[in-house]
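Suppose you are handed only these lines of text.
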Amino acid sequence: MELRGVGQRYGDRVVLDGIDLTLSEQRVGVIGANGSGKSTFARLLNGLVVPSEGQVLVDGLDTRTQVRAVRRRVGFVFQDPDAQIVHPTVAEDVAYGLENQGVPAEERAVRVAEVLARHGLAGHADHPAHLLSGGQKQLLAIAGVLVMRPARIVFDEPTTLLDLVNARRIADLVVGLEQQVVVVTHQLDLLDGFDRVLVIDRGRVVEDAAPGPAVQAYRALMADR
Ligand SMILES: Nc1ncnc2c1ncn2[C@@H]1O[C@H](COP(=O)(O)OP(=O)(O)OP(=O)(O)O)[C@@H](O)[C@H]1O
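From them, the structure of the protein bound to adenosine-5'-triphosphate can be written out as follows.
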């Protein structure tokens, strides 16, 4: 994924400015203060937001002109799974994206069963999705993305609403993924073992390093506020 001269503004408000990055590492973290531009950055990566300046490219595809192809390559997991869960039952919800892509019913059933089993939701296939616990809902939202087999997944604060047990579960799941992942988080221990961490501050990337030095830079920055 590549950002070239990317800027994002809403009216007079500059939310991101002068972002030039190539993200080729398997695990990339994004940290920074509230309102620094992290979610906007995450949303640029799969075309949920199109930059007001510059270009975002995924495998050479421009999010401005090839957003459908980009979305097939880049899955997105929202902070609040309720934003993502739209169908009455667990299995229907996971099947939804596949149905949209025209995957035949038989293959859909196999892929849905497989992903639910892998994420401990097999026993819940026919349960109402809204009755799941917060942790199960987040797993369901992730299963709904994984079933589509995107090559990359962007997570926007995936553990914020979760208790410690479920947060750990999601963290383990993220670490075990074979896809490229970009994770926005305030939970700094989620970044252990990541390849690269970006610190965003006031719309700019102010540190770009391994997790240790990046977290240190972020702490130093916040200590001065
Ligand atoms: N659609 C929009 N219209 C106007 N302003 C927006 C829009 N989206 C984001 N912003 C503004 O951009 C700034 C950065 O928001 P963003 O959600 O990217 O920050 P963040 O770093 O993810 O914050 P947090 O850690 O609190 O989630 C905020 O001041 C926000 O109000």
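What can we learn from it? The pocket of adenosine-5'-triphosphate is lined by residues 10, 13, 15, 32, 34-40 (CB under 6 Å). Residues 58 and 117 are 30 Å apart (CA to CA).
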